[in-house]
Amino acid sequence: MTSFDPYKARADFPILATKAHGKPLVYLDSAASAQKPRAVMDAMVDVMESSYANVHRGIHYLSNKATDLMEASRARVADFVGAGDVNEVIFTRGATEAVNLVAYGWAMDRFDEGDEIILSVAEHHANIVPWHFLRERKGVVLKWVPLRADHSLDMEAYQAAFTDKTKLVAMGHMSNALGTINPVKQIVKLAKARNVPVLLDGCQAVPHFPVDVQELGCDFYVFSAHKLYGPTGVGALWARAEILDSMSPFQGGGEMIDQVAEDAVTYGKVPHRFEAGTPAIVEIVSLTAAIDYLEQFDRGAIMTHERALLDRTMAGLANLQSVETYGNVQDKGAIVSFNVRGAHASDVATLLDRQGVAVRSGHHCAQPLMARLGVTATARASFGLYNTAEDVDAFLAALEKAEGMLV
Amino acid sequence: MQIDELIENFTLFDDWEDRYRYIIELGKALPTMDEALKTPDSKVEGCTSQVWFVASPATDDNGKTVLHFIGDSDAHIVRGLIAILFAIHEGKSPDDIKTIDAEAHLKDLGLDQHLSPSRTNGLYAMLGRIRDMADRLSA
């Protein structure tokens, strides 16, 4: 294991040397997409230089090599999330496609009019809109769990949301908009006591702390690679083997079939049944490099580092008179959502950008949450393992200047 | 305010900070839009901030058709950019508007990066609406 030093790690990410508007880049948008270490780029090039051909069913040397690498990546992901079996990992285009796969392949056949899905108001649209499809097409009822005054999940309301019609709980592990970490073990335990399956959106969780799906006890877990310092265009669905075995295919095409005739079709085995078409081979294989990169470090040390960045940020923001922050709970990852009173988040983000500081502004694909917060947008600073105390200080200084210009 | 005056003012600034302070000031000086005019029709879709825009033709003292604009946003900088866009186009005839190179003016101001299709500030869409109306109303 490599000891974790953020300054050394930072040097592994060539893009962080960028100058934005002539200023050193301070990249605080990792929750939208994390930057990639050299190791991931090298892996992508290496696949294409030495091991690339279409996967599965190929009889030739390179096809077998690419297939082996892709299946090794599946095993790496299975190990990464603590899956019981390698075939419980389905590669998708991203977390969005993974949730859609569950909605179409599992829920659509099983849910009827009046059945209920419990979700939180803080969900990302990727964990909302697929369930709206079920509401629109099947008459499924969406039951929303509100937040408490401190923006943590209202667990009393969650418990009260269950009825004998509850068919699924769909929750984020860590909020992309607020950084709040949901008490997922408790969420799963309460659902399991009522025999209700649980889907967890782990997009923001997996880059920040270790996840073990068996320990969590959930039924579905989704995440994307690009937030995990890995390539774009690939994500994963983990689900229990018996659930996957019972699921219908979502997309049809090559690679997912057993036999196709003019009047009949039979499907391949799990996991390939759910991976129609040529997958993102280069990206899937290189996801291994991203996980290897992350896990070469003591993840506890990364967590401590990111917590220190968060604490430093919160302490600095407390000194800025016009800044309001959201989601100020103890159980929180390194994401800070805020507004400057009297200004729009886009004003703040524009003035930070001019100073080289990259933050996101907008609804963060969480419009129900914004409505509950009573705002149309927030600015969001989100941190990765490569951020440093100097980044925090540069952000705070830039924000103080922006505040002075706007208020 | 006319665009020439704006460009002259901008030449006085030698750093981004003064330019943006001025844009924010222009935004604060832009007349606010009557809430009743903020309808789904006047809303410019796809913006990070909320943006509204109304264009209406009128006849000037010489009997010539000219266009008047009202716009608003909940973001100061976007309001400032709207004010600049209006300074370029306000009170002009549809035929005149068709000859205006707004992109070049924005470039003179060093603000052309705000006027690209990929920006979600609504300026590009607003300029499109101004030009559509000019097209419809010109002979």
Can you describe this structure in just a few lines?
The complex is a heterodimer of chains A (407) and B (139). Chain A is an alpha/beta fold. Chain A has helices at residues 6-10, 38-50, 61-81, 95-110, 129-138, 155-161, 184-192, 213-216, 241-246, 281-295, 299-317, 345-354, 367-373, 389-406, and strands at residues 19-20, 23-24, 26-27, 89-92, 116-120, 141-145, 166-172, 198-201, 220-224, 235-239, 257-260, 265-267, 323-326, 335-340, 357-358, 360-362, 378-382.
Blueprint of the fold:
The complex is a heterodimer of chains A (407) and B (139).
Chain A (H helix, E strand, L loop, with lengths): L5 H5 L8 E2 L2 E2 L1 E2 L10 H13 L10 H21 L7 E4 L2 H16 L5 E5 L8 H10 L2 E5 L9 H7 L4 E7 L11 H9 L5 E4 L11 H4 L3 E5 L10 E5 L1 H6 L10 E4 L4 E3 L13 H15 L3 H19 L5 E4 L8 E6 L4 H10 L2 E2 L1 E3 L4 H7 L4 E5 L6 H18 L1
Helix pairs in contact in A: 2-10, 3-10, 4-5, 11-14, 12-14
Chain B lengths: L2 H9 L4 H14 L21 E9 L5 E9 L2 H14 L4 H6 L2 H7 L14 H15 L2
Antiparallel strand pairs in B: 1-2
Helix pairs in contact in B: 2-3
What is the CATH class designation of chain B?
A: Alpha Beta
CATH topology-level name of chain B: Sufe protein. Chain: A
**What is the CATH architecture annotation of chain B?**
Alpha-Beta Complex
Q: How would you name the oligomeric state of the polypeptide chains in this document? A: heterodimer
Counted up, domains of chain A total: 2
**Large-scale geometry of chain B:** globular
Rounded to an integer, what's the Rg of chain A over CA atoms?
22 Å
N-to-C order of helices and strands of chain B:
HHEEHHHH
Q: In terms of per-residue confidence, which ranges of chain B show pLDDT below 50 for 5 or more consecutive residues?
A: none
N- to C-terminal distance of chain A: 48 Å
Tally of DSSP helical segments of chain A: 14
Number of helices of chain B: 6
Could you tell me the number of beta strands of chain A?
17
**Whole-number tally of structural domains of chain B:** 1
Largest interface: A-B, 17 and 15 residues
Distance between the termini of chain B: 28 Å
Helical percentage of chain A:
25-40%
State which percent range the strand residues of chain A make up: 15-25%
Computed CA radius of gyration of chain B, to the nearest angstrom: 15 Å
The helicity of chain B comes to 40-55%
